[in-house]
mitogen-activated protein kinase kinase
Amino acid sequence: MLGTPTYMAPEQYEGKDVGPATDLYSFGATLHALLVGRPPFPGASLPHLMLQHLTQPPPRVTELRPDIPAELEWLVLELLTKDPTCRPASAASTSDTLRALTGDLLRSTPPPEDRPPSDWAPLPPRPPAEERTLRSTDDAISTRIEFVNRRGEAVRIHWLDYQGHRVFYMRLDPGMSYIQQTYVSHPWIVTNTAETPLVVFRPTAAPGRATIHGR
């Protein structure tokens, strides 16, 4: 099995033949993440992730981004169809459809500032009590956060969705870091493995570093 589990097609998990339709599924998962700030299946473990890709329908992007056109949502759902024969005919036809559907929507999103993470400004840690008042809102300003775990224990990274609910994204072991694409109006909360809130981070238009300190 070769690939990034979060974006792998069902046939890859099953060890079946792969082809262009497999790449289209991976693109659909990537497109979903770009549109709503999270992958379609954020499984907490590899077995859980595999089960989601094999059996669960993808969440509708309009549940998180009501401003997304219905036709664009349909394209994402078509790309994420479990049966490879039911996905779009080719990458070229998908590109043509996407270009026709998005137009101004994609052009309105400026590219993230192209600087290495070592140059990104630190994001100020905010008290975990803020979680109760925060939720994501719509905007088209894409950005990135580098989460860095300086604690002596593993932490869990969660996005706060449009209802203010936690959506688990990543377990980060001590000394580890990872970069998350997100939007300026999407808050994030870090908890310990018992789900006790530790710190809140709010993205800025420029990419930033969210360092998680503590014991």
Summary: Confidence is low (pLDDT under 50) at residues 108-114. The two ends are 37 Å apart (CA to CA).
